[in-house]
Design a protein that fits this description.
Length: 185
């Protein structure tokens, strides 16, 4: 097993365990056991748990954001694009292993702890806000901020009560904001 294979196996195990059970609840020995990567190689690839957590969140950010961007990319106009965001969320919230936002979960567990982890969380939220600004259309920065609050709120509600309903309710609120010209002037 080379370092790249070990990295992939460790990240796969970390993502499954951290997302399902929490970062602090899962130790490095459990990651090693679940991944099948020898301890020496684990610490060669990720010298500390902070490095593994950062890499897990970074990889999840890239995949999550790319998937959401893909769902929005074919939209003909801002109304359709914003609707696509909430349709995508409804599908995500309905996945059997949905446990809320991995980034908010990490922040909730670690707070302002490890700087590298906090940087990934902040970058993810900035990217999400930029995606929403693109979806909302030019000159609608305030609307993007409002949409971000709807997305985050729906995600938290869905973490407590999984299923598509929180996304649908947030989509209705977003449609009201769009019709009201939210974020203009």
């Amino acid at each position: 097993m080379d370092d790249e294979e070990a990295r992939t196996r460790l990240l796969d195990a970390a993502e499954a365990l951290f997302y399902a059970e929490g970062i602090q609840a899962v130790g490095m020995d459990r990651i090693r056991t679940e991944s099948g990567v020898p301890l020496k190689r684990l610490y060669k690839v990720f010298p500390a748990k902070e490095a593994l957590v950062t890499a897990y969140l970074d990889r999840r950010d890239r995949r999550w954001t790319a998937s959401l961007r893909g769902a929005v990319s074919g939209a003909a106009d801002p109304v359709e694009a914003v609707g696509a965001v909430f349709e995508w969320l409804a599908r995500w919230f309905s996945e059997p292993d949905f446990r809320g936002c991995a980034f908010l979960n990490a922040y909730g567990e670690l707070g302002t702890g490890p700087a590298a982890v906090l940087d990934v969380v902040r970058r993810h939220k900035t990217e999400l806000r930029e995606l929403l600004a693109d979806a909302a259309g030019p000159g609608r920065g305030d609307l993007a901020d409002q949409l971000l609050i709807l997305v985050e709120g729906a995600t938290v509600v869905a973490a407590l009560d999984p299923g598509p309903d929180p996304a649908r309710r947030a989509a209705a609120a977003a449609a009201t904001l769009m019709r009201a010209g939210g974020g203009r002037g």
